[in-house]
Amino acid sequence: MSVNRSWVLAHRPEGAVAATDFGFREEAFTPSDLAQGEILVRSRIFSCAPTIRTWLNPPGRSYRGAIEIGEAIRGMAAVEVIASCHPRFSVGQLVTAVAPWQDYAVLRPDEAAVPVTAIPEGMEAVDAMTLYSPNSLTAYFGLFSVGEPRPGMTVLVSGGAGSVGAMVCQMARIAGCRVVAVAGGQEKCRWLMESCGADAAIDYRSQDLPGQLKAACPKGVDIFFDNVGGDILQAAVDRMVAHGRIVLCGQISAYDSGEPAAGPRDMMKLVYGRVRMEGFVVGDYAEHYPEAMRAIRAWAASGQIRSRVDLREGFDVLPSAFTELFKGQNMGTLLVQIPDP
Amino acid sequence: MSVNRSWVLAHRPEGAVAATDFGFREEAFTPSDLAQGEILVRSRIFSCAPTIRTWLNPPGRSYRGAIEIGEAIRGMAAVEVIASCHPRFSVGQLVTAVAPWQDYAVLRPDEAAVPVTAIPEGMEAVDAMTLYSPNSLTAYFGLFSVGEPRPGMTVLVSGGAGSVGAMVCQMARIAGCRVVAVAGGQEKCRWLMESCGADAAIDYRSQDLPGQLKAACPKGVDIFFDNVGGDILQAAVDRMVAHGRIVLCGQISAYDSGEPAAGPRDMMKLVYGRVRMEGFVVGDYAEHYPEAMRAIRAWAASGQIRSRVDLREGFDVLPSAFTELFKGQNMGTLLVQIPDP
Questions:
Q1: pLDDT digits over B301-340, tens only?
Q2: Which positions ≥6 away from A194 have C-beta within 8 Å?
Q3: Which of chain A's residues have a Cβ under 8 Å away from the Cβ of B266?
Q4: Measuring CA to CA, which residue among B19, B117, B127, B116 is closest to residue B73?
Q5: A108, A102, A115, A106: which is closest to A8 by C-alpha?
Q6: Chain Cα centroid distance, residue B250
Q7: Can you identify the CATH homologous superfamily of domain A2-128+308-337?
Q8: Of the candidates B233, B254, B267, which has its C-beta nearest A229's C-beta?
Q9: Shortest Cα distance from A272 to chain B (angstroms)?
């Protein structure tokens, strides 16, 4: 018998999420018999992703069901199969899945909205959670399928230093575009220019975002990949070229505000500018994941893309690490590793 | 020698446009020599269109240049060529063009942003200003090229009783769609259902727009053709099906408000709903006008589309007719005929 720790939703955050919104539980854990199609997993690495914040809101304000009060927080994780009653999964295998923030959990891969995927032999779990994660697929399909870049275009990326954003920057560079990234702070901006192929990087905390955007995008913005919304979206709308495209991936500026993310102040700018604004969800592209993964692997192998990890350790730090996301205190994908008991 | 009357912009409206924002002028008119490429025209019919309102705003808030203070108001008109120094136009011909609100004007067809087009033999000038006007082309390209309707889809049209909107309703019906129109007042709603092929019509003045929209679009909205913006746009965003499309044609609710037209309150609805929102300008489709005109003529000949005209008379009534547009007091395309002197 061992202990199963978990982080549950203690109460819904009002405005900024705080570590105190999470509740800690410990229960005795005795493996019971699995039903057909179930696997028992032990958690190894959790990814602290902004999307989780939207699941903390009341039902109806999220895409795939809010987390109930008292229910475990869930998010992308690398987990080890320790018992299996599913033909595709065997004991000892490492898989990525949406899993509860617990030491142990029973998953039903056939019912999972996000595929439960075996981490291939020879791939590090951390790489599976970064370079080869759904974040990279999100960047890939948002940029190529919704944005449709062509060489010479200017691609603006908000949340440029985030897991999705940094990947978009590198992929847009590969596509032959001029890349302008927006991020919080000089250190992130430097990293984006030195390591992510950004031709220019703008600190969104600067006083004059519209002026900086104009200087960085003298010919206007052909594609705006928006992870952030809010003021950055407003400024970008004013800089779009005729027939420009805004790829709506997320609106992180509002996730933690208690208010919905407001759209452009002046819709006539979209009319006169013939601007297309389009939301997307990566799951819609599931049948094309293999081709995207092949491209990502090839780019990684040739050194054209890489990811940066902000790796924390310990089950205890999950809530505090998560809240740092919204203060912009992470550099790269924020992962929390759970050491062996 | 005769008199050339004109309506000029006396001062920029703040908020709702008033007839007093227009100034009346009379000048002696003596035809002078035309330069090569010029035509002298006498005005016959003016179209009072909402777009004109956007040209009354300060420079920078419009698509193709604001009208200066003291400058003549301009808009679509049917005019008669009374002198020509242009090889394509001859005296006696009726043409449609963007022309100043004057009795007489000199036009330069080769420099015109909106094509100066001869009204074909046998076509009534009123038909050229309604059924075969740029409004119908706007409806055609907005619906078919941006909206991409397929049979069985639900198409929602705001400003349904306007010149563009009523045409969109009829074309969407031809495309085999379920048509839901939004308009102001029971009389317009009745007309939309009886004569424009609407399956349902909603009075936007009703207290419960979201509830009415839900009742009229039980399976959601596949395509929203938006002429109006504001509250109707908000309500429509909440009813879009996954992968639905919002065609941004205009935002008339804001033209007269002194404020820009605000976008959706919650952009995450576009993300989660994978909604595409796209502005368009009819001029971009100029090379496809002939095919659109052929379709419109065929539909008119078979009685599948028709237009309704609210015909006023007299140069004097231009400003007051124009202001009625924004109070929803017109039924159909608002034209002002200038009688022979």
A1: 999 999 999 999 999 999 999 999 888 888 889 999 999 8
A2: none
A3: 260-263
A4: B19
A5: A102
A6: 9
A7: Medium-chain alcohol dehydrogenases, catalytic domain (3.90.180.10)
A8: B267
A9: 6
